[in-house]
Amino acid sequence: MRCRIVPRNMAITVFRGFLSLVSQLEEMSFSIKSRADLEIDDTYEYYSEEPLSCPITVYGGLQDRDISLESLRAWEEQTSADCKLRTFPGDHFFIHNPGAGFVEAFRGDVLSTLRYPVRTV
């Protein structure tokens, strides 16, 4: 096996190309997620039914221009149990902000839900 040292400028060019590819892949992933979000928004129809009997936790971004705090609070109408509203710094994609504390809050909420007594109907 031969080992060859690549000139510095060539290595930098290859590395920049790699970074560009990673950036393009991230943009494609974001675009696919955004399209799925829009498709759900375009096709969803709400039907009024009896409220759920389980607790609901609602998560939202404080800088989300599409979903208002009032819209998030409206989830309270969907349960006869507790409804917890949690907001975090960021827009609609606040979960991608690692410093926002979402992961820790979500983890705690899931663990507390597992302790919630299950009612049979």
Note down, in words, how this protein is organized:
This protein has helices at residues 8-43, 69-73, 102-114, and strands at 56-61, 83-88. It is mainly α and 121 residues long. Strand 1, helix 2 and strand 2 (83-88) form a beta-alpha-beta unit.
Major pleated sheet: 2 strands, parallel
Multimer state = single chain
Q: What's the helix count? A: 3
β-sheet strand percentage: 5-15%
The count of DSSP E runs of length 2 or more, i.e. the number of strands, is: 2
Tell me the series of helices and strands, N- to C-terminal.
HEHEH
Helix fraction bin: 40-55%
Q: Based on CA inertia axes, which overall geometry fits?
A: elongated
Q: Please state how the strands of the largest beta sheet are arranged side by side.
A: 1-2
Number of domains: 2
Low-confidence stretches: none
How far is the first residue's CA from the last residue's CA? 69 Å
* Rg calc: 22 Å
Helix-strand category: mainly alpha
Average of pLDDT:
77
Provide a brief overview of the structure.
Helices cover 45% and strands 10% of the residues. The chain is mainly alpha-helical and 121 residues long.
Write the layout of secondary structure elements.
Layout: H1 8-43, E1 56-61, H2 69-73, E2 83-88, H3 102-114
Parallel strand pairs: 1-2
List keywords for this structure.
3 helices; two-stranded parallel sheet; about 10% strand; mainly alpha; about 120 residues; single chain; 2 domains
